[in-house]
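hey m, so remember when u said the tokens were messed up on ur end? i reran from scratch. heres the input so u can diff it against urs
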Amino acid sequence: MNVFEAVKSVFSNYANFRGRARRSEYWWWALAYIIIVIVLGFVERAVLGSGSADVTSGDGAVGASFNAGILSGLFMLASAIPYLAVGARRLHDIDRSGWWALIVLIPFIGGLILLYWYVQPGTPGQNRFGDPV
């Protein structure tokens, strides 16, 4: 699966929380999402003069902020449900319930656990969520 197939698959399964998503589908989609948001941010800044991205450092700390403009904000809003759906299907591929995505609400450790699960290979053959894609 390449990046274009992944984006097509995610948007064709817009709100489908059933089934399984391979690692390639999830990670190509994540990469495409980040690139699209960055490109939209540059377009907004150059053409519309809205939105901003800042990285600051000092006193041994680094901080970053991103204020979405109208284009990137609309894209993030339109792709929120597909992003959640592909994440749930990715968890299904490792035989975990999609509800485990809520573990990200536990500060720091939740995101690390979820990242660990997302990089795991899917269960071979059929599992309780269906056949591998």
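this time it looks ok to me. The two ends are 11 Å apart (CA to CA). if urs says something different then somethings off w ur setup not the seq
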